[in-house]
What does this fold into?
Amino acid sequence: MLHPELISMENEVFRVYLGWTAVLVLKIFAMGILTGLTRFVTATFANPEDLMSPKLKVKFDDPNVERVRRAHRNDLENIVPFFIIGLLYTLTNPSVFLAVNLFRAVGIARIVHTIVYAVVVVPQPSRALAFFVALGATVYMALQVILAAAF
It folds into this structure.
């Protein structure tokens, strides 16, 4: 049975979900900007019309640009599923404490993942830990949605 009150600003779980979703949307946009800045700084452009000088050539293999692009792709592969499952998890009427902390864990872990992967490169296991914290929280929510659906 769907409870419409679960999707309202009066529901703290939904409100926190909205907040972290907005933060992560901005984070994804920031990754696009970071990719562009990195291309500009390294003079690595993928399209001929973007070349700022006839001396430059199209280039696809700058390690700095590729690192930022991989971090961006990793966000898209992991944050978008969180958007979906986080909303569905909100509909299961979870514990406020648990849900709020799961959403925080995903948001903070994804931000840390980007910092240690694409901004200030830190050796492993830093990136793996950030990745698995967010993944674990998202998988937990997915399992709770499956259990609540009881199909």
Residues 12-42 form the longest helix (31 residues). Helices lie at 12-42, 63-90, 96-119, 126-149.
